[in-house]
UniProtKB/TrEMBL annotation:
Belongs to the universal ribosomal protein uL15 family. GO terms for molecular function: structural constituent of ribosome. PROSITE patterns: RIBOSOMAL_L15. One of its GO terms (cellular component) is large ribosomal subunit. Residues 37-48 have a biased composition (Polar residues). Keywords: Ribonucleoprotein, Ribosomal protein. It comes from marine metagenome. Residues 78-143 form the Large ribosomal subunit protein uL15/eL18 domain. GO terms for biological process: translation. This is Large ribosomal subunit protein uL15/eL18 domain-containing protein. Residues 1-48 are annotated as: Disordered. It holds the Pfam family Ribosomal_L27A. Residues 10-19 have a biased composition (Basic residues).
Length: 148
């Protein structure tokens, strides 16, 4: 039978944790918590944003809360009436919108259905509303959807 002074730890690879608060033989008395106060007592903890009573940065800058969606798509909406006023072509591409300064770098174009169209046009855009699609196709036009 093994004696209590001959017992060894099974796994010596793991570091032995300090045994706190078990008398002065270990890390006794205050167990590394100091003498008094909220943090010396069990269950005492603080909000991670607490700054010692000073007004917290989280409260000073509420506009920093939330997030910005990095996958957001920026659309510029144009009605069919706008198309009639801006372009006098039978075929309109995304390049034409850029040359006119209607869309910039990463912006995309969406055609909305306000207004009437008489002539058939071939449109290359990023998105089209259902009403605009019906009006353009009824006039004999064609729509090509380009993914950004």
């Amino acid at each position: 039978m093994a004696r209590i002074n001959e017992i060894r730890r099974k796994n010596t690879n793991t570091k032995k944790k300090n045994q706190l608060g078990r008398g002065n033989g270990s890390k006794g008395t205050y167990s590394g918590r100091g003498s008094k106060g909220q943090l010396s007592r069990s269950g005492g903890n603080l909000n991670p944003t607490f700054e010692g009573g000073q007004l917290r940065l989280v409260k000073k800058l509420p506009h920093m809360r939330g997030f910005t969606n990095i996958f957001k798509k920026n659309f510029v909406a144009l009605n069919i009436t706008d198309l009639n006023e801006i372009f006098n072509k039978k075929s309109i591409t995304i390049k034409d919108f850029r040359e006119k300064g209607i869309i910039k770098n990463k912006e995309m174009i969406k055609i909305l259905g306000n207004g009437d169209i008489k002539d058939s046009i071939k449109l290359e855009v990023n998105a089209v509303s259902q009403s605009a699609r019906k009006k353009i196709e009824k006039a004999g036009g064609e729509i090509i959807i380009k993914e950004s």
